[in-house]
Amino acid sequence: MTSNPLLAPLDPPAYADIRLEHLTAGIDQIILDNHNALARIILAQRGLPTWDDLVMAIDALDARLNNAVRLIVPLYTRGEAWKAAMDECWLKTQAYHQAKLQNATLLALYQRLADSAHGALFSHERRMSLQQSIKAFRLSGAELGETERARLMALQTSISAQPNLFLDNLAHATGAWTLHITDARRLQGVDALETTAMARKAQAKGLEGWLVTLEEAPCLAILQQATDRSLRETVYRAYHGRASELDAGPDNGPVLLELRRLRHEQAQLLGFASFAELSLQTKTAESTQQVTRFLQDLSTHSAAWRSAETARLRAFDQQARLGGLQPWDIAFYAQRAHRHPLALSGEEMRGYFPLEQVVLAMTQLADTLFGVQITPSSTLQAWHADVRCFEVTQGHALVGYLYMDAITRPGKEDYAWSLRVWNRHVDAEGRFHKGAAALFCAVERGDGVAPPLLTHLDLRKLYHEFGHCLHQLLVATTDYRLSDIDSLGPDGIEFFSELLERWCWSAEYLAGISHHYQTGKALPQSTVQAFLDQQKQQQGLTFARDLAMARLDLHLHGETYPAAAQGLQQQVVEQFDAVLPWPLGDFERPAQAFDHLASGYEAGYYSYLWSRVYAIDAFARFEAEGVLNPATGRALLEAIVAPGAGRSITAGFKVFRGRDVSPLPFLQWHGLNP
């Protein structure tokens, strides 16, 4: 075998040189090297542990492994063999970290350093980093007896394997279903750009007409726009029954229940009443009771909206003489109920937001508000020709890399997500290590006439994931652990991305970046405002569904688990019917497609609503001082973003706003009763 690029210096990443056989061989070698180095560090530090030779030496081992394994994650798009190898590498990496964090001798060394006279003189940042490390050891079972540690390791190994199974089942169910349409009348009402995309999918399969898939964009377009009620029903039933016992493929229900069982046993082994209680040890929220109250308050505040929306939908039912409104009618008639007479259609609006123009606007926003320059790079390598590479500079210094994989293609998921590849930090020798982040979206490819164009939902997703990437790249702490924004927990991580989304709800900002792909004209602010008012009204259903999923997530992982004799679907129905304006259909299986339960947000889905409360309140300062005000942007950067995990979102918000967070802006924006 030729030299393995994963074992060489990775800056900059040499994607063009990475071959399939490099993946497991490279990660195996790094893990072996780390085990050997870890043993040497423990032996050398037994007498007098020090910051440089204990903490920073182990941070360097973690950085080498994490940098390599996160770097190869995007390679899953190259095919099944690459995905299998990447999954194997990821599981091996998780097992290494679990074993390291269960090392009682290592925990004792960290604790001795923290308790030492030398440790008492450490800076606030070092003390916080040490305490977070010690907490990670304890939450991983380092203080348990040998038998309990072995059982916990077995549990964690099983838990690590289940999410991949859940997500693979969901991907299989999504990809296995298609609907071939040859009669154009069935697609009446659906935007031309969506039907064009469906036609391209049919052509790729050698078919005439249109091909509907279970990706989010075509399903949403049909359910909101198609006048053919039977088509809406077909698509709705297929989309909302994915990966369930009603589907032809594997059922995610048993996978989810097994995950819940394993997590509950893990929590009890560590001394917690529930997995939700364990999960909140690394989040901003203080207790399960606090989160339960938060969700219940939102349920109470939304009761009046729910009643009004139900009445509105029933009125449409009577007017249309449907003989009973069905779930596949809800989005269709809700959109008509809130239609603004002056608003452009979604298709007309999309023409003003070509991807290239939006990417330019995003990078300019980052420069204006946060003083960071994001410039295209012609030298960086990526994992696919579609990926755009950028160098990120701040204060004239290169601080990191940004990758944008925004266009749909075969083998790539159709949802938006981001990858925190490298942490910015300084090592024991004083060398600066750059940050790196990647965002993934599913914008429809241009058709040769029109370039890739973004719907308002596409815009929000792109800005959301860009927010995650900026957060990763703009952390200024030099400490490796504190520069890892995952240490903030999901409710801390989601704040900045939810905040970046708020610019997509600003008519002033969107009008300023609008640029029609044919004429180059911009939209008047009044036209954008009318469109946003209409979209905002339709956000009620999105909010209600987010609230339902957050309630379900907390319920599944809460203290009721041991006594939960009711089936999964019964629990789903109870939580959803409590907050949705219309009951679930008896065929709907939202839990089986609830991918956040298998992707790190279990017992944390409430974070989206929690962080949105903070984001809307924070954005109110920008609205008062100017949505492009550099001083406000710098204040946000210094108070909340730059400290990384060295300052909680709650504490940073208080610095930025001069007070505690208020739920009123969130409630008022959603039209809920304060």
UniProtKB/TrEMBL annotation:
Q: Which cofactor(s) does the record list?
A: Zn(2+)
* SUPFAM superfamilies per the UniProt record, alphabetical: Metalloproteases ('zincins'), catalytic domain
Per UniProt, residues of the Peptidase M3A/M3B catalytic domain are 223-670
Alphabetized, the UniProt keywords read: Hydrolase, Metal-binding, Metalloprotease, Protease, Zinc
Say yes or no: keyword Protease present: yes
Free-text remark on how the cofactor is bound: Binds 1 zinc ion.
Keyword flag Transmembrane? no
Q: Which Pfam families match?
A: Peptidase_M3 (PF01432)
Tell me which family the UniProt entry assigns to this protein.
Belongs to the peptidase M3 family.
- Recorded protein name is Peptidase M3
